[in-house]
Specification:
The protein has about 130 residues and is mainly beta. Helices cover about 0% and strands about 45% of the residues. It contains no helices and 14 strands. The strands form 5 sheets. The protein has a 4-stranded antiparallel sheet, with no helix packed on it. A hairpin with a 5-residue loop joins strand 4 and strand 5.
Length: about 130
């Protein structure tokens, strides 16, 4: 998974480095055409299975859509799932600009975001995008 900020794309390769697909645009949750703008970070979670080998949660692709000031989440096939806009908190100043550049997700689906304009540390969100 390669974040190509210059091409406004996420490039997905297989384990042999052969091109599988590229994400540049998608239809958002209100049915409007949308596109990535300088994505600088990407994190992919694995599929989760129960003890019987049944899929219980599909992995996701989390994209730092940096110059759109949000995270965009896709399934592992590149299908759009949802957008996580800038978090709201009294700890975040109103004039702070949220520009996510790196993202990671732990096994409890907590989302850790680095914003290149934030100097107070890493932003931690719930899987629904609420600031914690």
């Amino acid at each position: 998974y390669i974040a190509d900020a210059g091409a406004n794309a996420i490039i997905v390769l297989d384990r042999y480095y052969k091109h599988k697909f590229t994400i540049t645009s998608f239809t958002n949750e209100i049915g409007a055409p949308d596109k990535l703008n300088s994505p600088r970070g990407v994190f992919v979670t694995k599929n989760k299975y129960n003890g019987y080998g049944e899929l219980v949660e599909e992995g996701r692709i989390y994209v730092c859509d940096t110059l759109n000031y949000r995270l965009v989440v896709f399934d592992r096939s590149g299908n759009f799932l949802y957008v996580l806009d800038a978090p709201e908190s009294q700890l975040i100043e109103d004039d702070d600009i949220y520009r996510p550049v790196a993202v990671a997700v732990d096994k409890y689906n907590r989302i850790y975001v680095v914003s290149d304009t934030t100097t107070d540390g890493i932003i931690v969100l719930t899987e629904d995008g609420e600031f914690t």
